[in-house]
Design goal:
Length: 237
């Protein structure tokens, strides 16, 4: 079965347009063949239109052939937000959480460290992935508890997170595991040699923490503001 992967607008790095159409002309995505985050410059094979834009681009890293298809909006073909770009084959690589890039509660260095951890994980470098995961966790702990004790160990900071943050289900399951200092926490010790299974669990932990503590609250706040705006608009009519 044909599996195409939709590409988020945040990954667009260039556009091309004429008087009637606007399309992405470059994207930064993970190559489905070499699993590296690379820049694809897209040259469309046909005249710009709404329903049949396609291209085949070679990965600059491994020369793998990636196919791109773009479907524009029939009514507003100049609006990229209403069109959709797809790539084929779809990647089996680990992808970053949606919404991380736009989240204002995460610092830029923390975002870069998180994206680096994902990229390195996709190359199969488990030790380097574990190091970057530790860096992201340290950043999360410092962001959530900035007044922690100087020289406090990462393990101690993680164990103390539930005492400083109001965790609720389902995140309490993760917090409980952290508090008890289970096997996963032990693997964040850089003296141990991590493998794919352990680093996959590490990335899972980062995703759950970032989504629950940063991305989800921002989405809820945005939804609240939209509902308030709708209510205020209705009361003025």
């Amino acid at each position: 079965m044909l599996q195409m992967e939709s590409i988020e607008r945040i990954n667009y790095s260039g556009t091309i347009y004429d008087s009637k159409h606007k399309l992405p002309s470059a994207v930064n995505i993970v190559c489905p063949f070499c699993k590296r985050n690379v820049h694809f410059a897209i040259t469309w094979k046909v005249a710009l239109n709404v329903i049949s834009n396609y291209s085949i681009v070679s990965c600059p890293s491994c020369d793998g052939k990636v196919r791109f298809v773009y479907f524009g909006d029939m009514k507003e073909p100049l609006d990229l937000e209403k069109g959709q770009l797809y790539s084929f084959p779809d990647t089996t690589a680990r992808m970053p959480l949606k919404g991380v890039n736009q989240n204002e509660n995460l610092s830029d260095p923390l975002k870069r460290a998180y994206f680096s951890a994902i990229n390195v994980y996709n190359t199969g470098e488990w030790s380097a992935t574990a190091t970057l995961c530790r860096k992201v966790l340290e950043g999360i702990a410092h962001t959530l508890v900035p007044d922690g004790r100087p020289n406090e160990s990462l393990a101690s900071r993680l164990r103390n997170l539930p005492e400083n943050i109001d965790f609720n289900k389902p995140i309490m399951t993760i917090a409980d595991a952290i508090r008890k200092g289970g096997n996963l926490g032990a693997h964040f010790d850089l003296e141990r040699e991590p493998d794919q299974e352990v680093t996959t669990l590490m990335i899972d932990l980062l995703d759950y923490l970032i989504e629950y503590l940063f991305v989800l609250p921002s989405r809820i706040e945005l939804l609240h503001d939209k509902i308030e705006h709708l209510k205020n608009t209705g009361s003025n009519n």
